[in-house]
Specification:
Layout (H helix, E strand, L loop, with lengths): L1 E3 L6 H7 L4 E3 L10 H10 L5 H19 L2 E6 L2 E6 L2 E6 L2 E5 L8 H5 L8 H8 L3 E4 L4 E5 L5 E5 L3 H4 L1
Antiparallel strand pairs: 1-2, 3-6, 4-5, 7-8, 8-9
């Protein structure tokens, strides 16, 4: 798990300008994440008082969601401290989740809930063949099979190739 108490910027900028602000929590997947390790981790992120337990609970839930849902990545940005009815609360305000495509059969509920309305029809068709399609400028597209091999194709021939 990687986090930073620096707010308002992305983690890549922090790693370049202030690498000591990046806090890394290695987790042995054979053992999992203990509440004590999670508590120490959030303390290293400068949480104080009641916020320590709130942030620890969020970290534990993120880890559980990561494992239970075959996630490749869960990004929380921002994890913010806000005033709710006069009490400071640690809350997840936005997140991005990527699920392992090869685990779709185990994650049927997640697969069924995916909204493809904003997806390019070529991307949807490529996914049927376990490929990723990325439209480039002009008549060129990129097909990616996830194993680090890229195929540049002339777009007008895409349908005839797949």
């Amino acid at each position: 798990m990687i986090a930073s108490a620096e707010g308002g910027v992305n983690i890549e900028e922090i790693s370049e300008k202030k690498p000591e602000a990046i806090k890394i929590l290695p987790i042995d997947v054979r053992v999992g994440l203990s509440e004590e390790k999670a508590r120490e981790y959030v303390k290293s992120l400068n949480y104080k008082g009641e916020q320590i337990e709130q942030a620890k609970d969020i970290v534990m839930k993120i880890y559980k969601a990561f494992v239970d849902n075959d996630a490749l990545m869960i990004e929380i940005n921002p994890l913010a401290t806000v005033d709710l009815n006069g009490k400071q609360q640690v809350l997840v305000l936005d997140s991005k989740v990527s699920i392992d495509e090869s685990a779709k059969y185990r994650q049927k509920e997640i697969s069924d809930s995916i909204d493809n309305t904003n997806k390019n029809p070529e991307e949807i068709e490529a996914e049927e063949y376990n490929l990723n399609f990325i439209r480039l400028d002009g008549n060129i597209g990129c097909l990616v099979n996830g194993a680090g091999k890229y195929f540049l194709l002339i777009y007008k021939f895409f349908k005839g190739i797949v």
